[in-house]
Amino acid sequence: MTAAQADDNFSESEEAAVRGRVEQLRLQSAELTERLEAERERLSRLEITRETAGELLTRMTDGSAADEPAPSAGDASPFAGAERQVVGVLSVPQWQPGMG
Q1: Domain boundaries, the chain
Q2: What is the Cα–Cα distance from 63 to 23, expressed in whole angstroms?
Q3: pLDDT in 10s for each residue of the chain, 100 residues
Q4: CB 49 within 8 A of CB 69
Q5: How many CA atoms lie within 13 A of 72 on its CB side?
Q6: Vertex 59, ends 50 and 81: CA angle to 5°?
Q7: Dihedral of the alpha carbons of 55, 65, 75, 98, in degrees to the nearest 10
Q8: How far apart, in whole angstroms, are the C-alpha atoms of residue 65 and residue 55?
Q9: Residue 56 · residue 86 · CB < 8 Å
């Protein structure tokens, strides 16, 4: 084998090795891109949830829910007049007989 042939064989094997690494990196990049997009979507949902919970809590604590129209007498709730306690972001009426 001549020096030129050896050099060609070396160049081809080196090129094949580099091509293999490039393909491996391309696959890793595609996987990371997919994971990044999934995490971005999860972050967006969490931000929306936090904002919604904050708005609801604000409504419950500042009385702006009182701006909503009161139900008519025919729509009277068995919970009407019940004392409410704030638990997290939910308002739970005090139990009274007949509430079930």
Answers
A1: 3-66+81-93
A2: 60
A3: 676 666 677 789 999 999 999 999 999 999 999 999 999 999 999 999 999 999 998 888 876 555 555 555 555 666 666 666 555 555 667 777 877 6
A4: no
A5: 1
A6: 130
A7: 80
A8: 11
A9: no
